[in-house]
Design brief:
The chain is α+β, with helices and mostly antiparallel strands. The chain has nine helices and eight strands.
Amino acid sequence: MDRESLIRNMPLFETLADDEVAALSSQLQERTVPAGTTIFRAGEPGDTLFLIQEGAVEITTGEGKQRTTLASLYPGSFFGEISLLDGSSRSASAHATKECVLQALERDHFLGFVRGKPDAATKILAEMADRLRQTNALFSQQVARDVLEEEEERLTLGQRVADLVAAFGGSWMFIGCFGAAMSVWMLINWLLGDTKAFDPFPFILLNLALSTTAALQAPIIMMSQNRQASKDKLLAQNDYLVNLKAELGIQQILKNQGEMLARLAMLERKTARAPATGKDAGAPPSP
C-alpha cells in the first residue's frame, strides 16, 4: 500500500482532493520498527500520527497483570491521531508485534499543510462533523431493555405455577397457615380420643402428609430458583451492554470533541489571518 492510499484510508482525509493527498503524503516520514519494540508508552508526550504500511501493532493499556489489549492493528490502519491535533500525552501504549514499516506524520508538518491549504482544513472539519452526527445516531439507539418483562412473556404454565408455589412457600403466610393446619389436626385427634381419632398419636398420617409436601415442594422451589438464576444472568448481561455502550460513548464523545476543538482552533487562526493578508495584498503602494 503506497503513501497516498494510506492517507485516503483515514476517515479524516478521505474527502481530500488528489493534490491535497499528494501534498500531505509528501510530509510522511518512513520509520522501520523491529518486532517487540515499544513505539510509545501511555503518558508520554505525543505529536505524531502513525500509519502502518507493513507489520502489526498492538495498542494496550496498563502494565504487567493489569495490561489490557485495546486493539490489534495491521497494514492500512493508523494510530496516534489525537496527539497529531492537540499534542497531548498518549492515552495508551503501542507495541510492534511484527517488524513494521510505519509512515509518520508529525504535528508541525500537518499544521504547515493546513496553513498552506485552508480548503483542506474545511474538508477535514466537515468530515469531523459528519462523524459526530453518525456517533450521535449510534448512541441514540436503545440498548437498555426490560429483560424481566421479556422473560415473563415466555413463561410456560408450569413455570408460572412453580414461581407461585415458591413465592408462597417462602412466606410468613405459609408458615402461619401450615402451623395452624397442624395444630387443628392434632387438636381434633386429641379431642376425639384414641378410639375415634382418624390419626391418633403419634400422628403417622400427619407425618406422611408433611413428608409428601416437602418432597413435592423441594423440586418446585429448585425450578423457580433456577429460573431466578437465569433472570440474574440476563440482568447482568444487559447491565454489561449498557455500561459498555456508556463507556464507549463517553470515550468517543471526548475523542470527537478534542478533534473538533483542534480543527476549529486551526480554522479560526487561518480565517483570522486571511482578511489581513488579502487587504495587504490589494492595498496600493505607498508614495
